[in-house]
Please model this.
Amino acid sequence: MLLARLVVLATLTSTLLAPPFTVVAQPAGSVPRIGVVAPAGVHDPDIEAFRRGLRELGYVEGQNILMEYRAAEGIRERLPDLFDEMLRLKVDVIVTGTSIAALAAKKATSTIPIVVAAGGDPVQAGVVASLAHPGANVTGLTLFSQETFAEKWVELLKATVPKLSRIVVLVASSMGPGAEVELTALRRAGSALGVQVHSLEWHSPSELEGLFGVMLAEHADALVVTDDPLAFTHRAKIIDLANRHHLPAMYGLKEFAEGGGLMAYSASLTDLWRRAATYVDKILKGAKPADLPIEQPTNFEFVINLKAAKALGLTIPPAVLARADKVIQ
Model:
């Protein structure tokens, strides 16, 4: 009897001294697992925007949702292996960020839901049947919109660079078929304003120095760098080369201007990635990707870096400055 009382007393004492538990862990099998394959890097602001979107919806990593992050670092050839890895991890939803990545994910699986955070025109790329009715297992958001980026890029460069007559477009090989669509739009926009548009393709950062030499030899007046993962991954080098060669540049993502580039005009990628979290939430609650319409961008950004303009010897016209959403001094 005395021994029994001692056991009970010890049990009560250990219970009272134990730290309080505010969260009861869910069984591992019941916690949804999300696989994020970033076309660029996993520490990009866009990925953090997606995580913020999940938090806003009540998800806490490690508690009621599990996350797996992988990055292609702008190299499209890595994508198939990364998606195969997500299949082995048995993720419940795959999230990725470009049309090329979406096609690779779709090739890897026809059953796991795929959310594309910021692809190109998904219909033209063959990712979905239509924006309103995606069909199959892919849905999400697109950079494609009624807002024609090509026209804005050429128009803003023309208004900023005196006597602009020749633009060179730096095209990453990782862009695939979407590159030709963008180039066609740029050439059309250039023709309307009396500006020639030429392109140079690149595959790795080791080629960039030589390509800038080609641009100068071809008497380029300005540069356009589109919104592809390879360029984003190596944006610091591209910005440095453009500035060192005194070549005014328009970039397809705001991070380039924020990192020292002259100007950028694009849809807000961080906004699109944040909104991608709502698709994950709907799918986890039972919605089918085939029934979730593809959404287009609603938030656009024009960023000007005045420090870069000064280094290039450019004076940004007041009319152009007035259109900027953000001016970096």
The longest strand covers residues 166-172. Residues 146 and 296 are 9 Å apart (CA to CA). Confidence is low (pLDDT under 50) at residues 1-28.
